[in-house]
Design brief:
With 334 residues, this protein is an alpha+beta fold. It has two domains: 237 residues, q2cbj1_9rhob like domain (Jelly Rolls, Sandwich); 74 residues, Beta Barrel (OB fold (Dihydrolipoamide Acetyltransferase, E2P)), CATH 2.40.50. Strands 2, 3, 4, 5, 8 and 10 form a six-stranded antiparallel beta sheet that branches. A hairpin with a 3-residue loop joins strand 11 and strand 12.
Length: 334
């Protein structure tokens, strides 16, 4: 019997589906080979549904308090038609105004035993999560026109010296209209004469169209991808649903993990950071130190060396990656 053809992705360039990696779990060599080939893993229904539901409930409580959803639904964020003019959960927006960042539910999510065990198995070690989490509640916009790609970029340029893997987690069903995540398969190894991947983003017209991949996603699914993999959210053209997802970034604890703490002292030559135990760590600064001071897109990244002590203040919560005592990367926690 012939398979029923899938409907064309209206308003979206032809995009093939992500390769599913479930069958590779437990086979480190096969996982590594797929990563080397594709630059990502995509897993269906692997994250504990109870943990996802508890995380989603926090999102829904926040959206309900903002008055923009129908609170009778617990499996999705259903838009109630209220004004979104001052909606505060915005990529690149003011962190102090974001109510999800204030609650920071990622911490309790990654501490859940089932979640912690899964990621330790996947990474091959206990996972260190950098304090750089993005909480997405993208409102519906059925009148959206133009490109579906919100912001094509790769995170490697913005995370110098950190061997991170990015974990994108949908919290409710995401169909074609709601958008989701698209990434460019096999383009995670920049080559000579490859397209530029600057900190401020990648021109979507330079990514080969046949490299893009996407899927429809559900709670329990997971996409893990390389820092050098070009990717973008797709515009939410639904007329009913907010798109709920979370990005977290992890590395193995046995790797050279960054120091997380508070700035104690800083000048053009060095920064001193006190970790949560009070221990102080001093790092040299030089022209190669990549320092960013804002969440989201910032065309001025990285800061010039002379700007670092002017814009990074004593008392700021930061994390610092280093190599032999020199800071390679520094940014605010969020």
């Amino acid at each position: 019997m012939n398979a029923v053809p899938k409907p064309r992705l209206i308003g979206t360039p032809p995009i093939r589906e992500l390769n599913v990696s479930n069958h590779l779990l437990g086979n480190r060599a096969a996982l590594d080979a797929a990563w080397d080939r594709d630059g990502y893993w995509f897993f269906r229904d692997v994250l504990d549904k109870g943990a996802i539901a508890r995380l989603r409930a926090i999102y829904l409580q926040v959206l309900d308090k903002l008055g923009v959803i129908d609170p009778s639904h617990t499996d999705a964020a259903v838009y109630n038609g209220a004004s979104l003019e001052r909606f505060p959960i915005v990529m690149g927006g003011d962190p102090a105004a974001d109510p999800l960042l204030a609650l920071h539910p990622m911490r309790q999510f990654v501490a859940e035993p089932a979640i912690k065990a899964f990621f330790a198995r996947l990474f091959g070690d206990e996972v260190f999560w950098v304090p750089n989490t993005e909480y997405h509640t993208l409102p519906p916009n059925p009148k959206h026109s133009g490109s579906r790609f919100n912001y094509v970029h790769a995170d490697g340029a913005n995370n110098k010296g950190l061997p991170l893997r990015i974990c994108w987690i949908p919290l409710a069903y995401i169909d074609e209209a709601t958008g989701g995540l698209a990434l460019a398969e096999g383009l995670h190894k920049p080559r000579m004469n490859d397209f530029p991947r600057p900190p401020a983003g990648i021109g979507q017209d330079v990514v080969p169209p046949d490299a893009w991949r996407r899927a429809e996603f559900g709670p329990g699914d997971l996409v893990v991808f390389s820092l050098e993999t070009p990717h973008s959210g797709l515009a939410n053209r639904s007329d009913r649903y907010f798109r709920l997802s979370m990005d977290i970034r992890g590395m193995r604890k046995s790797d050279n993990i960054p120091i997380v703490g508070t700035v104690v002292a800083i000048d053009e030559n060095a920064v001193m950071v006190a970790d949560e135990t009070g221990k102080q760590h001093t790092f040299r600064l030089n022209e190669d130190t990549f320092c960013r001071i804002a969440r989201g897109r910032l065309s001025g990244m990285p800061l010039a060396l002379a700007e670092i002590p002017r814009l990074v203040k004593v008392g700021d919560p930061v994390y610092v990656a280093s190599n032999r005592g020199t800071a390679t990367f520094m940014r605010p926690q969020h």
